[in-house]
Amino acid sequence: MYLVPRNFFHRIHSKKVSFYNIFFKTHVDSSSVNSFGFQQRNPGFVSNPFRMSVSSYATSPIRRRRLRGPPTRSLRRRMSRRAKAAAEPVLDEAQFQRAISKLLPRFTPEELCNVITSEDDPLVCLELFNWASQQHRFRHNVSSFHITIKKLGAARMYEEMDDIVNQVLAIRSLGTEALYNTMIYYFTQARKLTRAVNIYKHMKDMGKLDCRPSITTYNILFTALLSTGKNSYINYMYMDTIRCLFRQMVDDGVEPDVYTLNCLIKGYVLSLHVNDALRVFHQMGVVYSCRPNSFSYDYLIHGLCAQGRTNNARELCVEMKEKGFIPSVKSYNSIVNSLALGGELDQAVNYLWEMIENQRSVDFITYRTLLNEICRQKQVEDAVDLLEKLQEKHLLGEATYRDLLHGIEWCEKQMVFILSCGKAKPTKAMKVGAARHTELEEEVAKKVPIQVTSAEDKWALRFINFIVGANQLLFEGLTRELPL
């Protein structure tokens, strides 16, 4: 009996081996045990055919099932668990033993804290903490809990950190403000807001003077709630939570600082409540004795520009510069885009050069919006001149310059694209329609004689008449058709 791969014989046939003919007969009792006969095919060599009994097995890899459509949620969870299990770190026993050797026989929690601080491997720190918990007459204090939670949280070992946190919460007499703030912070980093809020409530219910929520606690929660939403609707829902949390903070006698008020302003702006953001901004110095900083102005300028309130944004920008602050990249880009879309092109260009002088980087969307609006106001030459000035000062890369130049050329040639759409070759009337759109009416109606010689020319001329009439309806309120 010989063990051979089942697909071995298929490979012999596929390679067209000229030595043997293969005959096989399946046994009745087992489909995997076959009787094969080998007979030499070379007629010059005479030998008796022989037979042998073999047991075949499959060596071809298992065919993976192809997914039809995106993977399901359960499949993604299984894949995630397998990836985590494959990437699970392994404890370094030698390093763990070296860490234990640094401790005295009757070590204190402070000495354990120093050893854990000196270790870089979070698994060693966790194992050292658990080993110390099993030692006779040893009890962890706030320092050992704190440093272990920090090590595990920084390594994103949140499940192991949760076990240590449960041990802290089980001892109501144990805990400080710094320890609870650390636990809340790392749970917000793990996107476990419910767990962080529960720890905050536990912190309030303890009633210890040295473990009351402070301004740092509230700022951590505000930051986590603001970073959750990805659109205005989600921010609107979380803004109610932020508002209630802020009211509770004030009722508990905790004075808000500039960072807290900026979080409120940012939350109102993201939830499209700019008037409430302005109210908080004006109350900063009167009610809360805080001076606005550059972030306060930046959030408001961006929110006002997003709602098209360009004049208010410009006034805030002037006030901001009078107080010695320089607007951020986001504020400048918002103002330039808002002014350009509002038709105030001169002011937009002035803010653009001011932005460059203050060494703020202009993004591609701002360049494109400004140039497109200049072209829309029939000032294509001004757009080209502005682009050339930017290129001369080495403010644009080659790829950015080509993309912006292509956009300006598209403004000039958009008519020939529209008129020649679906046509193999544009006719003469279509080429006439490709004149610069800044002088389209004058070129077509007064100066350019059009010879209508075919049905295509007639169709193109009617299309030009439609475009001209639409332009007059937009700017003058009248419509007319060019005579043939």
Automatic annotation (TrEMBL):
Molecular function terms from GO: mRNA binding; single-stranded DNA 5'-3' DNA exonuclease activity
Repeat positions for PPR: 293-327, 363-397
Domain of life here?
A: Eukaryota
Keyword Repeat assigned to the entry: answer is yes
| Coiled coil region boundaries | none
- Keywords recorded for this protein, A-Z: Repeat
Query: What PROSITE patterns does the database record attribute to this sequence?
Result: PPR (PS51375)
Does the UniProt entry include the keyword Repeat? yes
Q: Which PANTHER family match?
A: ATPASE EXPRESSION PROTEIN 3, PENTACOTRIPEPTIDE-REPEAT REGION OF PRORP DOMAIN-CONTAINING PROTEIN
Identify this protein by name: OLC1v1037176C1
